[in-house]
């Protein structure tokens, strides 16, 4: 993967001319053609990354599309304006009026909001299923009008790993497409090998890697699906700006090194946290104690540096808040995948249709950046002292 990330979608020197290592970013709306005939011939080539009009994407967008398709093992990729647009655009493309969509209860919050507002308004019904559903349960949840089984693995904030192969088998048996939010699994989960039809990523996270751009990608395995997706993107005007694509393509080149370093540090810190008396559970699929570990081991070749921590129920939200406020190495903010460490409280603001275990204490999510892990552990250790000083657990 690291070699692919360095080599994919680069310009090559010719006999006549050298090239810059990174492609130039070109900006534009109007594309000029020499003749009417040339203009019309180009207009028919909307599916093969031709330059027709700026709203259909610029060369740097198409270069990024080639790179993401190679990383995901996809037939084609469409770059869109954000990770959320990568979730919503295929839902608009592949669902229709009176259709039905199955979405895991552990889904990224804004995807749920889109299903509950826009999709509902357009006559599409959504059912939320437990992310760890078994084959019998999924068969029972499928309806004759189920068009998409949405998956997200591991789940947002709660990190359940889904059995994507089983889900794909069942969905396909019922004639539905499988869509995956593969943002956590970028490069370490190969969606199309497991039967996924549509894989999306928030390139905002590790691919751009520097917390300074918002971009998304939608990838498909099938040529007909590509036409449906591409037509929809053109019809609704979905694309990403050339500067954002350029930043993302540049970020991708170092993603192998960043991901490896951040992933190792995250596992070390997760293991350290799991030993702490204040901690009830660490939600990290690479830890054998995590319920999704066996599926993660079967299907993934690595892990992101994003995981959850659930405290013991004797601690209150106010105790955890005091801990978070005391941290100096962890930025407090949304998103993740940059070079810097982040913390986010996750106890409130997570909507679940299926009830969570009642005995959980407050929870937070950590993203581990490229700082020295010892500095991060020292900061967390001081923070946990703040937490335990506030509430001495009862014997
Ligand atoms: C961040 C994120 C998104 C949305 O990406 P944006 O670029 O911030 O819109 C979608 N899905 C998951 C799992 C994410 O973490």
How are the secondary structure elements laid out?
Elements: H1 2-7, H2 36-43, H3 59-72, E1 76-80, H4 83-94, E2 100-104, H5 109-121, E3 125-129, H6 135-141, E4 146-152, H7 164-173, E5 177-181, E6 198-202, E7 216-220, H8 223-236, H9 242-253, H10 255-274, E8 279-283, H11 293-299, E9 306-311, H12 317-326, E10 331-332, E11 342-345, E12 363-367, H13 373-390
Parallel strand pairs: 2-3, 2-4, 4-5, 5-6, 10-11
Antiparallel strand pairs: 1-7, 6-7, 8-9, 9-12, 11-12
Helix pairs in contact: 3-9, 4-5, 4-8, 12-13
The structure holds pyridoxal-5'-phosphate.
Task: Tell me what you see in this structure.
The modification N6-(pyridoxal phosphate)lysine is found at residue 205. Belongs to the trans-sulfuration enzymes family. One of its GO terms (biological process) is L-cysteine catabolic process to pyruvate. It catalyses: L,L-cystathionine + H2O = L-homocysteine + pyruvate + NH4(+). Helices cover 38% and strands 15% of the residues. A 7-stranded mixed β-sheet has the order 1-7-6-5-4-2-3, with helices on both faces. A 5-stranded mixed β-sheet has the order 8-9-12-11-10, with helices on one face. Strand 4 (146-152), helix 7 (164-173) and strand 5 form a beta-alpha-beta unit. The protein has 395 residues and is α/β, with parallel strands linked by helices. It has 13 helices and 12 strands. It has 2 domains: 2-252, Type I PLP-dependent aspartate aminotransferase-like (Major domain) (Aspartate Aminotransferase, domain 2), CATH 3.40.640; 255-390, Aspartate Aminotransferase, domain 1 (Alpha-Beta Complex), CATH 3.90.1150. The structure holds pyridoxal-5'-phosphate. Pyridoxal-5'-phosphate binds at residues 82-84, 87, 108, 152, 156, 181, 183, 202, 204-205, 214, 216, 335.
